[in-house]
Amino acid sequence: DAGFSVVGTAADGPSAVRRTLSAAPDVLVLDLNLPGLQGSAVCAELARAGSSARILVLSVSGEPADVLSAIKAGATGYLVKSARKEEFLEAVRRTADGRAVFTPGLAGLVLGEFRRLREQPAATGPEGQQAPELTDRETEVLRLVATGLTYRQIAAQLFISHRTVQNHVQNTLNKLHLHNRIELVRYALERGLHD
């Protein structure tokens, strides 16, 4: 009735990863307490596999450690299960649009963590080496990722394909030895690329 199609369900973490990669949904609604593989680990596995699914965590826990762990692993948003039906449906819509969604009170927690990370020393590569240089196009895509645009929005703005944006993001992740979009945003924040 809300206009969504459920393309698959999973009862445990490993099957959540497999089903998400095979069904390629726009949004994955994910619990954190899954048998076999916790929700944050599912987020990380999907990020490593290059999944474009946006992840909305729906959990009973509003604990800061759980929230930050999920977001750092690649979740787009975090909603506690006490949310009303209307809040949940709106959160799914916003997540599908690529917007970050948080239960009231949790957004400040995440923003505070990003500020803290920004104040840390600049990231370096393995064994303390400076991170490699990015091309102008990779930097441009990274700047737009840091503003919160979706890959499709970035593609439209730069007049390139969605796949090309994904390739630039993946190349940037590989060069910087990062694992997901959240780490990319952190990298951009540390260097002021979001301004």
Topology:
Layout: H1 13-23, E1 27-30, H2 39-48, E2 54-59, H3 64-73, E3 77-80, H4 85-96, E4 101-102, H5 106-118, H6 136-146, H7 151-158, H8 162-176, H9 181-190
Parallel strand pairs: 1-2, 2-3, 3-4
Helix pairs in contact: 1-2, 2-3, 3-5, 5-9, 6-8, 6-9, 7-8
**Overall body shape:** globular
Order of helices and strands: HEHEHEHEHHHHH
Order of strands, main sheet, comes to 1-2-3-4
**CA(first)-CA(last) distance:** 40 Å
Number of alpha- plus pi-helical segments: 9
The overall average pLDDT, rounded, is 81
- Helix residue percentage: 40-55%
Looking at how many chains there are and whether they match, the oligomeric state comes to single chain
